[in-house]
Design goal:
- This protein is α/β, with parallel strands linked by helices and 1086 residues long.
- 51% of the residues lie in helices and 11% in strands.
- The strands form five sheets. Strands 1, 2, 3, 4, 5, 6 and 7 form a seven-stranded mixed sheet that branches. Strands 9, 10, 11, 14, 15, 18 and 19 form a seven-stranded antiparallel sheet that branches. A four-stranded parallel sheet has the order 22-21-20-23, with helices on both faces.
- Helix 13 (387-398) crosses helix 15.
- The chain is elongated, with a radius of gyration of 47 Å.
- The model is unreliable at 26-48, 516-522, 725-771 and 1027-1049 (pLDDT under 50).
């Protein structure tokens, strides 16, 4: 092996030096730059050094309770606020209500001993935390997460837990229970019992039953006494004058909606969607109604996917609006403009935009159509118009059974309860003449009644077929209540569905039977103000519905080869109509590209649907056969008509019975085909029974029992998300990307067929009379064409699937890299700027009103002074004028004080909005800095890895490759020299042999000539021939010396080898230096 030369070592050292210079180029070559100090919000900007430090905020606000809520729809947040209000009322303790997404939990262990933490946690989907509680749950459950004590322990922490869930779902209150378990494991101490609210029965009753015992334990644990607080209002309601009409909210949900400015349409800014088609789906609408409504989204920027939900913003019915206005004594001033201010914005924020009017609040902003809560009745009893009404409300508040029988079963709204307590007739349309007015402060109504929320419906269409249209399938809620001693039986109506029914009638120009009294004999519908605020929901004869889209994870599998089983009785079929349309659109494209056999390997889609009768409430009965035709037999529908077809024993047939009848296919689709099962509809009974049947089917197919093997298989399906959750509103998607593969051409002849054809051709060729080369050529050409077509089709399918897959990956990359967050930030900044603009305008108006009040009071005081100066000359008119001026001065003083407070509040509001905007921007800036650091680190590590790889290759080339090349080259030269030596030796030997033969011939010739000459010159005699010594000497001189020739030739070869080796070493050194120089220049150029 050739040893490493000095030049190789020098090149290696040079490479290491250049690599070190590249790694430390910033320190060696860059000029010193001042480091940018991180931007930290000052205390004057946001009130605290770290806006995510809840401990600092508690100390700053002197708060002893921190209440965290995990909420998806706002219910848990409402209960968190209620707990904070009760703590203030009972014990005088201030609370900090926190969205856990906005705070860090490293210092949770620093909560003082005289404080407590409340956790109001809702369970979402299949036992998952709500979106804003994900990080909190990760911190609690991750044992590697350390608090400020450098441990995963919380000794001394006092906490309270109230969970919200629904018992119809498997993972009932799992998040509340998990929080309790984790805190106990970390050494924290729970106060009282863990509360669990069941939304399937009565969340309110569960809360009321739990809270009394909890507050008793709370008082003992924290050493406080009840009665230290007081009934202080949350809001101040003031009537306003001199406000331009265009600045008053009349049902708009945001400043963008009020000013009609363009922007993103979401829950804060719904889009008024024109209704392009509306029709009745039930055959007997006099008995029941189901509305099909198509909403046009063209030009709105709204997009959706199959399985998403559309939120419709209804208003309260006219009769309930009039009822509550009359009961509150506000009917005569329902259009009076009011302003609402929060006395403690950290505890209670104004839940809707202001300024507005009394009627607008009751019609558009608060949910007066819900059943009246038991707790609010005790509060309102203090404002009863007579002792009898007070006694009725107190009894309903304290007597749980009475409340259940009268209010809950009677489906009584707040206005109806007030009428019944006052002895009014609820059957007639409410007016000021037949309804007793209660002196209830309006701020109590605002703080006690929850906000009117949108109603969500599963979208029943696919954007692949209807890209600019959202279809809604809505069964209208209408049922009769249970009669009681105080309340006769009456009709009850759902707010959202009857609002849509009113829109359906108006859109097609039909007249509905409007209810003016809840008479059980007349099943009519309530009327709504469907034109919307300022008529913005009606344009000519076209009506509009305020909507926004909420994303869902209720999706079909991406691979159409996977079998799909869908169970959706009644309107539970709505999202599955969109699913089938999605598959139809894909099938049409596939058939157009790949021919009629494109769906041959698709999985079967089975829909199990149930209704009463085929001629009464069979939804979309005319569409399903068309979809089956488009899907070429890959779509099969099973229908159960519960009041039309019966079992042999006379019992009704439901979807679970059809599922059992088709058990062989169901088991094969799930176990062999790895299929997906979707359940949508009534979650209380149907879904549980369907799961039981599935367990029975799978247990039998596995050769076991439903209780063991069947339950295990169903659980396995849920774990791999092959059974999405029962409700389409809470359905996580199966996060699976199916990688497409290119299959072999399926339309080529089978190998047996090919062999048979070849045998026939060979048989024909063996006979000279049957040889047909043209036929053979034609068949080969057909095979080739078929193979090309099949390959092209497969390639097109692979390309299409790859596009879908990469599109999904791109969307996921956008989400991971934060582009969606950046868009959301932009929207939030725009909304914040709009709010700041609105607040500044309100501040200017308040300032103007203050100046006007000051001027009015100044004029009034000037006139009073004038009168006082001539007091001795007063007449009766002057006395009356003075009295009037004094009263006016008092009113002007109050107005001046109020406007001054309004100016101060508006200035503070502007400051708060601006601080919120800055916090949002700075938080995003911090996130961007973190991402930039990660990207730079990844780039640096990548460059280092590439440089290290290059250095490794270079060093390996010097240490291993170069010596190997030299050895190979030397061996080649040695072999060549040896070959040349052998050839020269052979050539010399051949030449010597030829010369020897030639000399022998010459010798014989000379001897012959000598004999002849001697015979001619001398007489014949017998003589002895002379010795041939002289000739021998000449022969020795002529013959070359072979050893000498070989010695000279070997010396020349050795010299040539040494010279060549030196030249090669020099060339290798030069080449390595050149390559490394180029690589270094490229690295430095980066």
């Amino acid at each position: 092996m050739t040893s490493t030369s000095t030049s190789d070592i020098l090149i290696l050292v040079l490479g290491v030096g250049l690599a070190a210079a590249y790694l430390f180029r910033d320190q060696l070559f860059a000029a010193s730059k001042p480091k940018a100090a991180p931007v930290v919000a000052s205390k004057g900007q946001n009130g605290f050094g770290n806006p995510r430090d809840f401990i600092a905020k508690m100390k700053e606000g002197k708060k002893r309770l921190v209440i965290f809520y995990g909420s998806q729809t706002g219910t848990a947040e409402e209960y968190a606020i209620r707990l904070a209000k009760e703590a203030k009322t009972k014990f005088g303790l201030a609370s900090l209500v926190c969205d856990p997404e906005e705070y860090d939990f490293e210092n949770l262990d620093q909560l003082p001993e005289d404080c407590a933490a409340f956790f109001v946690m809702a369970t979402y989907g299949e036992g998952e935390p709500t979106d804003n509680a994900v990080q909190l749950m990760q911190n609690l459950q991750d044992e590697s997460f350390e608090f400020s004590n450098s441990e995963h322990k919380l000794p001394g922490l006092k906490y309270v837990v109230f969970g919200l869930g629904n018992k119809t779902y498997e993972h009932y209150n799992s998040i509340g229970r998990a929080v309790d378990t984790e805190l106990t494991k970390m050494g924290a101490t729970r106060i009282g019992e863990r509360g669990e609210g069941d939304d399937d029965k009565s969340m309110e009753e569960d809360y009321l039953e739990w809270k009394d015992g909890m507050w008793e334990a709370f008082a003992a644990a924290l050493g406080v006494e009840e009665g230290q607080g007081g009934d202080s209002p949350d809001f101040v309601v003031s009537e306003l004058d001199l406000l331009p009409a265009e600045k008053v909210y009349l049902g708009e949900l945001s400043a963008r909606a009020l000013t009609r400015t363009k922007g993103i349409h979401d829950a804060k800014n719904p889009f008024p969607s024109p209704i392009t088609e509306a029709r009745e789906l039930f055959q007997n609408p006099a008995a029941r109604n189901c509305a099909h409504i198509e909403l046009n989204t063209e030009g709105s920027g709204i997009t959706y996917q199959h399985g998403d939900h559309v939120g419709v913003w209804p208003s309260n019915p006219d009769v309930e609006v009039d009822r509550l206005l009359c009961a509150l004594g506000l009917m005569d001033k329902k259009d009076k403009v009011i302003g609402i201010e929060s006395l403690d914005p950290a505890l209670a924020k104004v839940p809707f935009p202001v300024p507005t009017t009394y009627a607008t609040v009751i019609r558009h902003y608060i949910d007066i159509s819900a059943v009246a809560g038991r707790q609010i009745l005790g509060t309102l009893s203090k404002f009863a118009p007579n002792p009898n009404a007070e006694e009725i409300l107190k009894n309903l508040n304290t007597n749980k059974e009475e409340y259940h029988n009268v209010v809950a079963l009677g489906c009584l709204k707040l206005g109806e309860v007030l009428q019944i307590a006052a002895g009014n007739d609820t059957k007639t349309h409410p007016t000021t003449e037949n309804t007793t007015a209660w002196s209830i402060p309006f701020d109590i109504i605002v703080s006690s009644i929850p906000r009117l929320q949108p109603r969500y419906y599963s979208i029943s269409s696919s954007p692949k077929l209807y890209p600019n249209s959202i279809h809604v399938t809505c069964v209208v809620l209408k049922y009769q209540s249970e009669a009681s001693q105080h309340v006769p039986q009456k009709w009850c109506y759902g707010v959202g569905s009857n609002f849509l029914l009113n829109l359906r009638y108006a859109a097609v120009g039909e007249t509905a039977l409007i209810a003016i009294s809840p008479d059980p004999a007349v099943a009519s519908i309530p009327s709504y103000q469907i034109e919307g605020p300022r008529g913005m929901y009606k344009e000519d004869t076209v009506y509009k519905a305020p909507i926004h889209v909420r994303r869902s994870t209720f999706r079909l599998p991406t691979n159409p080869k996977s079998p799909v089983i869908m169970i959706g009785p009644g309107t539970g079929v709505a999202p599955f109509r969109g699913f089938v349309q999605e598959r139809v659109a894909l099938a049409r494209r596939s058939i157009e590209k790949n021919g009629p056999d494109a769906l041959a390997d698709w999985g079967r889609i089975s829909l199990f649907y149930g209704c009463r009768r085929s001629n009464e409430d069979f939804l979309y009965a005319d569409e399903w056969p068309k979809y089956a035709e488009d899907l070429k037999g890959k779509f099969v529908m099973h229908c159960a008509f519960s009041r039309q077809n019966y079992k042999p024993d006379g019992s009704k047939i439901y979807v679970q019975d059809l599922l059992w009848d088709d058990r062989e296919h169901v088991a094969e689709a799930i176990l062999q085909g790895k299929g997906y099962v979707y359940i949508c509809g009534e979650a209380k009974n149907m879904s549980k029974q369907v799961e039981d049947v599935l367990a029975r089917i799978l247990g039998e197919a596995k050769g076991g029992s439903a209780a063991v093997e069947g339950v295990a298989e169903v659980k396995l399906l849920k774990e791999r998300r092959s059974i999405p959750p029962k409700s389409s509103a809470e359905s996580p998607e199966s996060n699976e990307l199916n990688t497409p593969e290119i299959a072999s051409p399926s339309n080529l002849p089978s190998p047996e067929r090919q062999q048979k054809i070849l045998d026939e051709i060979l048989d024909k060729k063996s006979s000279p009379f049957q040889e047909d080369l043209d036929a053979f050529t034609q068949r080969v050409r057909e095979w080739r064409d078929q193979a090309l077509v099949s390959f092209r089709n497969r390639a097109d399918e692979f390309t299409a699937k790859s596009k879908v897959t990469f599109s999904q990956l791109g969307s996921e990359l956008n989400r991971v890299t934060g582009y969606e967050v950046i868009d959301a930030l932009k929207r939030e900044v725009v909304e914040q700027e709009a709010r700041i603009h609105t607040t500044r305008q309100a501040a200017r108006q308040a300032k103007q009103a203050y100046d006007e009040a000051v001027a009015q009071r100044s004029n009034s005081q000037r006139e009073v002074n004038d009168l006082l100066q001539r007091k001795s000359l007063w007449t009766d008119t002057d006395v009356g004028r003075f009295t009037t001026l004094v009263r006016q001065d008092h009113l002007y003083e109050q107005e001046e004080t109020r406007t001054k407070a309004a100016v101060h509040e508006m200035e503070n509001a502007v400051e708060r909005e601006f601080s919120e905007l800055m916090r949002t921007i700075l938080a995003r800036y911090h996130e961007e800095q973190v991402w930039s650091d990660k990207i730079r680190s990844a780039s640096t590590y990548g460059q280092l890895a590439a440089l290290g790889l290059n250095m490794f290759v270079f060093v390996m080339a010097i240490i291993i490759v170069e010596p190997w090349k030299r050895r190979r080259l030397a061996q080649t030269f040695e072999k060549k020299v040896e070959q040349l030596s052998q050839e020269n030796e052979a050539r010399v030997e051949a030449s010597m042999a030829e010369i020897g033969a030639h000399l022998a011939d010459q010798e014989r010739l000379i001897l012959h000539l000598r004999d002849v000459t001697h015979g001619l010159l001398t007489p014949p005699s017998v003589e002895t021939p002379p010795p041939a010594e002289e000739f021998q000497v000449k022969q020795d001189v002529v013959v070359p010396n072979n050893d000498r020739v070989e010695e000279v030739h070997s010396g020349q070869v050795v010299t040539t080898i040494q010279l060549t080796r030196g030249i090669l070493e020099l060339a290798a050194v030069a080449t390595g230096a050149f390559v490394f120089g180029v690589a270094s220049s490229l690295l430095f150029s980066r």
